From TrEMBL:
<keyword id="KW-0808">Transferase</keyword>
<dbReference type="GO" id="GO:0004360">
    <property type="term" value="F:glutamine-fructose-6-phosphate transaminase (isomerizing) activity"/>
</dbReference>
<keyword id="KW-0032">Aminotransferase</keyword>
<dbReference type="GO" id="GO:0005829">
    <property type="term" value="C:cytosol"/>
</dbReference>
<protein>
    <recommendedName>
        <fullName>Glutamine--fructose-6-phosphate aminotransferase [isomerizing]</fullName>
        <ecNumber>2.6.1.16</ecNumber>
    </recommendedName>
</protein>
<dbReference type="GO" id="GO:0006047">
    <property type="term" value="P:UDP-N-acetylglucosamine metabolic process"/>
</dbReference>
<feature type="domain" description="SIS">
    <location>
        <begin position="40"/>
        <end position="179"/>
    </location>
</feature>
<keyword id="KW-0963">Cytoplasm</keyword>
<comment type="function">
    <text>Catalyzes the first step in hexosamine metabolism, converting fructose-6P into glucosamine-6P using glutamine as a nitrogen source.</text>
</comment>
<feature type="domain" description="SIS">
    <location>
        <begin position="211"/>
        <end position="349"/>
    </location>
</feature>
<comment type="subunit">
    <text>Homodimer.</text>
</comment>
<dbReference type="GO" id="GO:0006002">
    <property type="term" value="P:fructose 6-phosphate metabolic process"/>
</dbReference>
<keyword id="KW-0677">Repeat</keyword>
<dbReference type="GO" id="GO:0097367">
    <property type="term" value="F:carbohydrate derivative binding"/>
</dbReference>
<feature type="active site" description="For Fru-6P isomerization activity">
    <location>
        <position position="354"/>
    </location>
</feature>
<dbReference type="GO" id="GO:0005975">
    <property type="term" value="P:carbohydrate metabolic process"/>
</dbReference>
<dbReference type="GO" id="GO:0006487">
    <property type="term" value="P:protein N-linked glycosylation"/>
</dbReference>
């Protein structure tokens, strides 16, 4: 039931702080240690490569999670689009482990990969929001997202829940493998800060609605740009905008603009820069300026410690690996209000189904 909300999507965006707190409640003990089934950690500890498999938003969540697995557990990790991997996968390592990300647990493209994984008796883990879904039943292990039912076709709280649960896995596995940096990653308190930060962003809806109406309501195309982890969020942000507002939106690695894409910039083209990392902030800003020099309307989503006076949307500071949990929220809201402003059915965009059970 969507209660007083006009659309499930807005309700689900607003639920994200509560989902973060629920994940903390489900996956941490009193002392702040992550709780993950030891059989999962044991199996992962034996792997020499982790293959993360997903489609759409789940694939995007994998791109963010892979960095934490590598950083805290030191296991080489690559992320793959399931519909590609099923027909064209890279040479696999000797001891592969497969992590399936799927909100619904029913995506046919991902299941196709799992069938091959099982034929080869490779170990697998499905992270899903739906208990007893096909992908969780057929994988060796399963972990629940605890995001609560997600009804809107555009995935929001499942994306942030996937990243948070991947972070739990990365920390738990890193500690299991005795990597000191995993001990130092105070994930429980970080997720608390994330929840508060999400709340602060969703409390500023009116400002974001105004930005959507000023910059996105009439445009036919838009670009999200960023580098590294901010690029991973850019492609998720662009997917949100295209699937519900039908704006042709793309997420680009900002350094790639000058290698071709900048030719598309015209007077008034919205270019949204995501800037959350010290290492890349200056570079993304200068790429953004290059687009402004060619007529673009720049919009920025920036972490507080990097913010400048001219920035558009300022988000609270959190751990560098967790910034997607906050930077995505304004993008979800920009997509929502653009679609709403155009009078579209936000929850049921044309041509799309919530769960894609065909290949
Ligand atoms: O249920 P799944 O996570 O496996 O679904 C994967 C995609 O179909 C899904 O994320 C889709 O891209 C969403 N509509 C994006 O908002």
């Amino acid at each position: 039931d969507k209660g007083a909300y006009p659309y499930y999507m807005l309700k689900e965006i607003d639920e994200q702080p509560a989902v973060m707190r629920r994940i903390v409640g489900q996956y941490f003990d009193q002392a702040g240690n992550p709780q993950v089934d030891e059989a999962i950690l044991d199996a992962l500890a034996k792997a020499d490569h982790l293959y993360i498999i997903g489609a759409g938003t789940s694939y995007h969540a994998g791109l963010v999670g892979a960095r934490m697995i590598e950083k805290y557990a030191h296991i080489p990790t690559t992320v793959h689009i399931s519909s590609e991997f099923a027909y064209d996968h890279p040479m696999l390592s000797e001891h592969p482990f497969f992590l399936f990300l799927s909100q619904s647990g029913e995506t046919a493209d991902s299941r196709q990969v799992l069938v091959e994984v099982n034929e080869n008796h490779w170990p697998s883990l499905t992270m899903t929001n739906v208990d007893k879904s096909t992908l969780s039943r057929e994988a060796t292990y399963t972990m629940l997202l605890h995001a609560g039912p997600e009804i809107a076709v555009a995935s929001t709280k499942a994306y942030t829940a996937q990243i948070a649960v991947e972070a739990v896995l990365a920390k738990a596995l890193g500690q299991f493998l005795k990597h000191p940096e995993a001990d130092e990653f105070d994930l429980r308190s970080q997720l608390g800060m994330v929840a508060n930060g999400m709340q602060a962003i969703t409390d500023s809806k009116d400002d974001i609605e105004e930005i959507a109406s000023r910059f996105l309501s009439k445009t036919r195309n838009a670009f999200y740009i960023g580098r590294a982890i901010d690029w991973s969020v850019s492609i998720e942000a662009a997917l949100k905008l295209k699937e519900i507002s039908y704006v042709q939106a793309e997420g680009f690695a900002s350094g790639e603009l000058k290698h071709g894409t900048i030719a598309l910039i015209e007077d008034g083209t919205p270019v949204i820069g995501i800037i959350t990392q010290d290492k890349t902030a200056g570079l993304t800003r200068s790429n953004l300026e290059e687009t402004v020099a060619r007529g673009a309307n720049a919009i920025t989503i920036v972490s507080r410690h990097l913010a400048q006076e001219t920035d558009t949307i300022i988000i609270p500071d959190v751990d560098d690996n967790l910034t997607p949990l906050l930077s995505v929220v304004p993008a979800q809201l920009l997509a929502y209000y653009t679609s709403l402003g155009k009078g579209y059915d936000v929850d049921k965009p044309r041509n799309l189904a919530k769960s894609v059970t065909v290949m």
